[in-house]
Amino acid sequence: MKTALKYAALLGGAVVFAYPFLWMLAGSLKGELEIASLNLLSGSFSLQSYVQVILKIPIGRAFLNSIVVSAATTASVVFFGSMVGYALARLRFLGNKTLYTIILFTMTIPFQIVLIPQYILMVKLGWTDTYLALIAPTMMSAFGIILFRQFFMAIPQALIDAARIDGCSEIMILFRIIWPLSRPVMITVALLTFMSNWNEVLWPLMVVREQSLMTMPQIVTIFTTGGQAETQLGYLLAAATLLSLPVIIAYAFFQRYFIESMASSGLKG
Amino acid sequence: MTGLKQMLHRGRSGDRGAYWFILPYVVFFCAFVAYPLIFSFILVFHRWNIVTPMEWIGLKNFDRLIGDVLFYRSLLNTLTFLVIHIPLQVVAALALALLLNTGVRGRGLFRALYFLPVVVSGVAVTILWQQIYSFDYGVLNNILHAAGLPPVPWLVDPRVAMPSIAIMATWKNVGIYIVLFLVGLQNIPSELYEAANLDGASAFKQFRYVTLPMLNPTIVVIVVLSTIGGFSLFIEPYVLTGGGPMQSTLSGMLYIYNQAFSFGHMGYAATLGFVYALVILGVVVLQRRVIESEMSS
Fold first, then answer.
1. Is residue A169 packed enough to be buried (19+ CB in 10 Å), middle (13-18) or exposed (0-12)?
2. Is residue B286 within 8 angstroms of chain A, CB to CB?
3. Which residues in chain B come in under a pLDDT of 50?
4. What are the domain boundaries of chain B?
5. pLDDT at site B261
6. Which of A160, B96, B216, B284 lies 20 to 30 Å from B61 when distance is taken between CA atoms?
7. Are residues A136 and A252 both part of a single domain?
């Protein structure tokens, strides 16, 4: 009896969290009049809403923009973050402790304070309406550096010493010895960075006005709030489905990594 | 290149090559952290629309902020959000985590499903909930109707709109906190429960005096992260309500955005950001103190 109740509660939770997404998918395929129904099935599924979304906004282009921006940012955060993390964890230099303290300090700054000045910087540099504005300010992450540093501190010194005796330079040690040992932390940093960039919408809304440069969540936001959707629920749900599908597919395959990354970081991406 | 090689060589005084490793970050820090921080201190004393030259106006931005009804309104809205969101989040996450921790079958699958909204874009989630909350055709009001209950004006009534957003945000984020609680629960040494059992403590007492205190660090993290999230609320009201009805969902971030991009008041927007940042830091420090002293007493 008690077990039955437990599973009923668990299933109830599953319905609450998963059913809305199924309903979204079903609604995007249904005719306007049927959407409100809680029923997922319909006799008249069609791709009409998707056709309309694709005709009205360059969502394919936005998808590519999002891929380019998120991939470039992620590559940079992993590459440079691991370099700084390695220096902090394994190299002796004047200012090591100071730099570490500064990086920790930057994590406590609420982003509200730098948002407007950062936007003005983009305007001054003439970077608005370019990929640079979307990529440059997130090219490094204090959080990523800290995660790398923690992981690198646990790598046995003997491995590094052996490589030094063989005449490896520090940069070669990082690429050839440390990187291959660091897959877990690299996946964590890459996944969190990619996801938070993919879903970011406030910053693109600020620095990009040119439709051909908009990211996917940005263009869907503008589609929704700007009246282009003509209050057609089907169009909105189709746009929302197109926006969530890439992440849901990635999540379906790498679900464990997503959850473990979040758990090990204890922070939102 | 030989110069570079020499730089990378390990010297007696330390690793001089290390400076090459940190140089990119130092450049990044100066451009995108230090410069904006310093510039924000300058900006708060100016009136500026980016196009015409900056105009020094002393403390007038702060004067204006002190008398700005919408600023207080946005703080009040944030408070409304947090008062509903935080307890709901902690209770829901803890309940589901405890349920998942009882050795049930399919634990991984349930956890994965509860986590699903976390990974999906906030914009998609907001569009989805716009339909769920719709007064005439919404899923929730359909269910209420089927149960013979009157419809709820989820996003139309100024008293209900912000709580609606708080519920939606809980639904979106609770998966993260379930996972954090699960980690916390697994870190509680089983000897504690064995000792409590020997003392004849009831299940409730075990929960109250063993589980809860041991989860204290996790609860602190959740409260702090939810608070920062509440102050950063933007896309949900931007898409759902545009800050209405009657400014009841105007969040701090949305107000900064409007001041900067609807009115071109860069100086005032920077001042709002500056003050919000101070409020956030103050609230977070206070929360940590309160929770930590409550739990230790």
1. middle
2. no
3. 1-12
4. 69-122+158-296
5. 92
6. B284
7. yes
Based on the fold, state whether residues A244 and A142 are members of the same structural domain: yes
Q: Are A110 and B277 in contact (CB < 8 Å)?
A: yes
Q: Judge whether A210 lies within some domain.
A: yes
pLDDT given for residue A167 in this prediction: 85
Identify the segments of chain A with pLDDT beneath 50: 267-269
- Please give the pLDDT value at position A125: 93
CATH class entry, domain B69-122+158-296: mainly alpha
Same domain, A27 and A81: no
Asked whether the beta carbons of residue A13 and residue B113 sit closer than 8 angstroms, the reply is: yes
**Do A217 and A241 belong together in one domain?**
yes
- CB contact under 8 Å between B112 and A255, yes or no, is yes
The CATH number that applies at residue A79 is 1.10.3720.10
Whether residues B113 and A18 touch (CB distance < 8 A) is answered with yes
Restricting to A residues 125-164, those with a Cβ less than 8 Å away from any Cβ of B are 136-137, 139-140, 145, 164
Residues A146 and A37 both lie in one domain: no
Tokens (6 digits) for B256: 């900064």
The pLDDT of residue B260 is 92
Residue recorded with tokens 């050839």: A176
Looking at the complex, does the CB of residue B253 fall below 8 Å from at least one CB of chain A?
Answer: yes
Q: What is each CA distance from A267 to A203, A264, B6, B127, B221, in whole angstroms?
A: 20, 8, 40, 25, 8
- Which three-class secondary structure state does DSSP give residue B166? helix
Which one of A105, A116, A135 would you mutate to disrupt binding with B, by most B Cβ within 10 Å of its Cβ? A116
Please judge whether A119 and B260 are an interchain contact, meaning their C-beta atoms are less than 8 angstroms apart: yes
The whole-angstrom separation of Cα B92 and Cα A187 is 29
Q: Is there a domain that residue A53 lies in? A: no
Contacts of B25 in chain A (CB under 8 A): 80, 83-84, 99, 103, 140, 145
pLDDT on residue B14: 66
Contacts of B184 in chain A (CB under 8 A): none
A positions 40-79 inside 8 Å of B (CB):
none
Q: Are A117 and A205 in a shared domain?
A: yes
Q: What is the pLDDT of residues A8-50, one digit of tens each?
A: 999 999 999 998 999 899 888 887 777 767 777 776 788 888 9
Number of independent structural domains in chain A: 2
List b or e across A15-29, with b for residues whose CB sees 16 or more CB atoms inside 10 angstroms: eebeebbebbbbbbb
Please give the residue range of the domain that contains residue A5: 1-46
Chain B window 114-133: which residues touch A at a Cβ cutoff of 8 Å? Answer: 114-124, 127-132
For residue A3, the chain B residue with the least C-alpha distance is: B104
8 A C-beta contact, residue B50 and residue A120: yes
Assess whether A70 and A120 both reside in one domain: yes
